Amino acid sequence: MTDTDQIHLFQSADGYIQFDVALDQDTVWLSLEQMVLLFERDKSVISRHLSNLFKEGELVRDSVVAKNATTASDGKTYQVTYFNLDVVISIGYRVKSQRGVQFRQWATIEQGFGDELFYPNVASRAANLLYLVIKNHPLADGNKRTGSFLFLWYLRLNEHLLAKPTKQLINDNTLVALALLVAESKPEQKELMIRLIEHFILLKKQ
Predict the structure, then answer these.
(1) Where among 108, 130, 165 does a domain terminate?
(2) Has residue 68 been placed in a domain?
(3) Last-in-domain residue among 76, 108, 140
(4) Which domain holds residue 91?
(5) pTM, entire model
(6) How many other C-beta atoms lie within 10 A of the C-beta of residue 99?
(7) Mind listing the pLDDT tens digit for each residue in 166-194?
(8) pLDDT, tens digit, 9 for 90 and up, residues 22-49
């Protein structure tokens, strides 16, 4: 990892936990200590889940783990191991805690009431993700960039449900145009913006 931007990635439903994470190489990176804080589990528990997901071949360690020099409170510089968002999502699905449930809801945008989801399909969830990150200004800066990143990440995560690969549905120019349109839109135009974004996301026929 190189020096990276810091973005505010996650805030729990009770507002108790929120922290910045590193954004680099088109993904976000968390340290073991940050995952311990995020999922409210002992370091030994998170370490065990990490060991198992690599042992089981769910992820290839070399492609999702990086080291970065970090200056600690004692003034000394240490090499800290960071794990990318694929690892964080995998741990989030393994860990058993209320915080893990909250994170899984955040990570998939799959929230609802009872058996009914607020956003009924991948296109709707991706469109709302892009819109809400850009328009709600959860970050001090970089909302359009971060929203666009998370939008593409979510589509790629669910690419098996799409009619075409993400790159064929949303090219760079289209994504830039959508992000700018959302940023400049009026609040009363939300539904129009959501439908516009959904227009570019073709789902497989059920």
Answers:
(1) 108
(2) yes
(3) 108
(4) 5-108
(5) 0.52
(6) 20
(7) 889 899 899 999 999 999 999 999 999 99
(8) 556 556 788 898 888 878 889 999 999 9
